[in-house]
Amino acid sequence: MRKGRILKESPEMRLDIALMNKRAYPEPTDKVELVQTHISLVFLTDNYVYKIKKPVNFGFLDFSTLEKRKRYCEKEVELNKRLSPNVYLGVLPVTQDNDTVAIDGKGRTIEYAVKMRKLPMERLMIRLLKEDRVSREMVENVARKIALFHSEAAGSKEIDRFGSIDMVRTNTDENFAQTEKYVGKSISKSQFDTIRNFTEDYLKQRTQLFNKRVAESKIKDCHGDLHLEHICITEPITIFDCIEFNDRFRYSDTAADIAFLAMDLDFNRRRDLSEALMNSYVEFSGDEGVLDLLNFYKVYRAYVRGKVTSFHLDSPDPATQEETLRTARKYFTLAESYVHEENKYA
User: Fold this and answer.
1) pTM for the whole thing?
2) Terminus-to-terminus CA distance in the chain, angstroms?
3) Where are the beta strands (DSSP E) in the chain?
4) Pairing relation of β-strands 219-221 and 88-97?
5) Burial class (CB in 10 A: 0-12, 13-18, 19+), 70
6) For a disulfide at 244, which of 75, 100, 106, 136, Cβ 3.0-4.6 Å?
7) Taken in order 261, 267, 272, 273, is the CA torsion positive or negative?
């Protein structure tokens, strides 16, 4: 009966325990591993991954009800099938029958799980990069896949709105408001002012450029979280884990999408591969205009990563706080470096 009490007190904790049972899965497995994020429980079996959304509400993300979690699980599968159709397999109920909790079992549905084919983690682009095993050919193939994805991604009058100056300003203003409390910690006052002034001036002076991108149908339903940890160098290349929980973070200029990956390569000190990525992307997409906005969106992407990393300082783990602070500062320093590059050639 102890398990039943845990379920009433904390369904999340109950699943942590119950789904570590190898018999809880539809197929045989020799082991089960659990990886937790602030929004998900991720169970890894021998051949599959089962991802369950935590019942949380952060404002920009709302998984607070079972109905919402089911809807976002379905949306996650639908959206990610665009770039990795053979990885995202569907949504399965998590069921409870008396004291037995299982994936797609008997009894009442207590949760939902996204089922994915397990990827070879040793082929993640971030791991290959750290091992100095990312070639220009790999980068060119990734650029080709992203360019094709962007050409086929949905666009509409509603989506166009997210490329407007007003919406871009909404996003950047939000970033600065949310990072003010980190000034003097992960970002210096000088960096904060430099990046904010650059952003405000750029948006005032480049209205026609943003309008042109909208007119050229470059605002699409993109990936939204396009960085090295979400690319697996398989055959074919797998790009996964796009943002499903908030359309605003996914609807954007294609330049903002590809700039994320270019920035991530810069962050990992591979400017050569970042340049190769952009040269190949322009070649395969035919979109030379992406270069006009590249530095602006690199600033934006590096700043967002610095902001999100800084959030972890609010509930610090003493064992990781120093590394978190160092990483956040590195992102903000990178964002500032792009400002100086832009000003140099302005």
Assistant:
1) 0.93
2) 69
3) 33-36, 40-44, 48-53, 88-97, 100-103, 108-117, 219-221, 231-232, 238-239, 251-253
4) unpaired
5) middle
6) 75
7) negative
Q: Which CATH architecture has domain 123-345?
A: Alpha-Beta Complex (3.90)
pLDDT at 64: 96
Distance between CA atoms of 137 and 277, rounded to whole angstroms? Answer: 10
Q: Which fold has domain 2-118?
A: Phosphorylase Kinase; domain 1 (3.30.200)
What confidence category does residue 288 fall into, taking pLDDT thresholds of 50, 70 and 90? Answer: very high
- Coil, strand or helix at 180: helix
Domain boundaries, the chain: 2-118, 123-345
pLDDT band of residue 153 (cuts 50, 70, 90) is very high
Q: Distances in Å between the alpha carbon of 263 and those of 139, 177, 231, 338?
A: 14, 22, 15, 10
**Residue count of the chain:** 346
Tell me if residue 135 falls in helix, strand or coil. Answer: coil
Give the separation between CA 306 and CA 183, rounded to whole angstroms. Answer: 12
pLDDT tens readout for residues 131-147: 999 999 999 999 999 99
Residue 308 has pLDDT above 50, yes or no: yes
C-alpha triplet 79, 226, 337: angle, nearest 5°: 155
Supply the DSSP string of 236-288, one letter for each residue: S-EE-----S-GGGTEEEHHHHHHHHHHHHHHTT-HHHHHHHHHHHHHHH--T
Whether the CB-CB separation of 159 and 220 falls below 8 Å is answered with yes
CA distances from 125 to 21, 42, 48, 232 (A): 31, 20, 20, 6
CA distances from residue 155 to 80, 142, 144, 222 in whole angstroms, order as listed: 17, 22, 20, 9
Contact 297, 278 (CB under 8 A): no
Assigned token pair, 245: 């929980």
Burial of 143 (0-12, 13-18, 19+ CB in 10 A): buried
Q: Which helix (H) or strand (E) holds 215?
A: helix 207-215
